[in-house]
Amino acid sequence: MPAPDLPAIDYAALARSIKQWARELGFADTGISGVDLARDEQHLQQWLADGHHGEMDYMARHGAKRSRPQELEPGTQRVISVRMDYAPPDIGSAWSVIGNGELGYISRYTLGRDYHKLMRGRLQKLAERIRGEIGEFGHRAYVDSAPVLEKALARNAGLGWIGKHTVLIHRRAGSYFFLGELYTDLPLPVDVPATEHCGSCRRCIDICPTQAIVAPYRLDARRCISYLTIELKGNIPEELRKPMGNRIFGCDDCQLVCPWNKFAQQTEEPDFAPRHQLDGARLTELFGWSEDEFLRRTEGMAIRRTGYEGWLRNIAVALGNAPRSEPVLAALRARADHPSAVVREHVAWALQQHEASTVTGDER
Ligand code: SF4
Fold it and tell me: What is the pLDDT of residue 362?
């Protein structure tokens, strides 16, 4: 980031303009924070020391860069945080998919186009607008692309508070949104941090299928279905497979149950609309996809992150939890000799569940 060499600038007026330009670019909200994250750094260190990050080694890498923006990007004085809503119009129908064991549940944030590129491109455009106004300035745009404590920065910028489930919530926007950041060397006026409004509520803690929220504001990622279905490579711990139900990519239960999401804003971004009817597809159909089909149908979507092996592994678990039927058994048997040992192991587990249900007469 080059050293600033700027003429006299009315930073308060510039901050107002930045927020206006961000709205014009499709961001639902924008806030500005400083770079002090000392309290959050402690929280992060404790979380890592407890091993709650599981195999996400990247969370422990990069030293203090994650909690000290000026170490990631020297010269950074402020962070401009932006929000983009992703909730589809019928997000309430999520429960009916979760409740239907023949369907696969995919987290609502990943049903449309991958948000990373889209948001980063718009943050770059925002930076260009600023440059057009004041000339060259130091900046860098991030959307999950570097070690950034995005929720803490967004909270400090007034975009919401971090709930007991560790997701950011806004009183008038719920929690179904993506965050992005523009680090900058401009000494803009900062916004007032958001205050907390969880109160005595603990619905997210109680609903979590795998009890991954081990205490308020503390998530053991090793138990979280989002981690198990997306981040974890290899075998899913057996004791967590049944509670996964039919969730094959991510999990939204803690957000779906949050009372603040009655204020969630529907997305205005056509690119975030669900693709290929993935918001309620049959497990047997998804399990039948070849690798080519998987790659073709998930092109440009964040869902690709799990890889084909992970995709089959996750669906095998869901089929093990599905109501016993001939199509379910046939789909599993067809993959029993799959070249991947991980897929074979999960298929064998799934078939065992159905054998066990015949012996016990459990019709599920
Ligand atoms: S469900 Fe309740 S405790 Fe959890 S984040 Fe929402 S308001 Fe906070």
Answer: 55
Whether 85 is catalytic:
no
**Catalytic position from the list 29, 40, 144, 253:** 144
Rounded distance between C-alpha atoms, residue 34 and residue 24, angstroms: 24
Contact 164, 216 (CB under 8 A): yes
Q: Which of 161, 162, 165 to mutate to test the pocket of ligand 1 (most atoms within 8 A of CB)?
A: 165
The finding on whether 251 has its CB within 6 A of some atom of ligand 1 is no
**All residues at 6 or more sequence positions from 107 whose CB lies less than 8 Å from its CB, including other chains:** 226, 247, 249, 250, 251, 252
Looking at residue 357, its pLDDT comes to: 72
Query: Is residue 54 domain-shared with residue 132, that is, in the same domain?
Result: yes
Which residue's C-alpha comes closest to atom 5 of ligand 1? 163
204 C-beta closer than 6 A to ligand 1: yes
Residues of the domain holding 249: 203-262+274-360
- Could you tell me the strand order of the sheet in which 29-33 lies? 29-33, 78-85, 177-184, 139-142
pLDDT, residue 4, reads 52
Q: Is the dihedral of CA 60, 64, 65, 69 positive or negative?
A: positive
Is 193 a member of any domain? no
Of all protein residues, whose CA lies closest to atom 6 belonging to ligand 1? 258
For residue 257, give both structure tokens: 């149950």
* 163 Cβ closer than 6 Å to some ligand 1 atom: yes
What are the pLDDT digits (tens) for 291-322? 999 999 999 999 998 999 999 999 999 999 99
Would the CB of 170 count as within 6 Å of ligand 1?
no
Q: Decide if 281 is inside a domain.
A: yes
Which atom of ligand 1 lies at the shortest distance from residue 167's CA?
A: 5
Which mean pLDDT values do the consecutive 10-residue runs of the chain (364 residues) have?
64 98 97 95 91 86 87 96 93 93 96 92 98 96 91 98 98 96 98 97 98 97 96 96 98 97 92 89 97 95 93 98 98 98 98 82 52
pLDDT of residue 160: 98
- Confirm whether 279 is domain-assigned: yes
Is residue 80 domain-shared with residue 211, that is, in the same domain? Answer: no
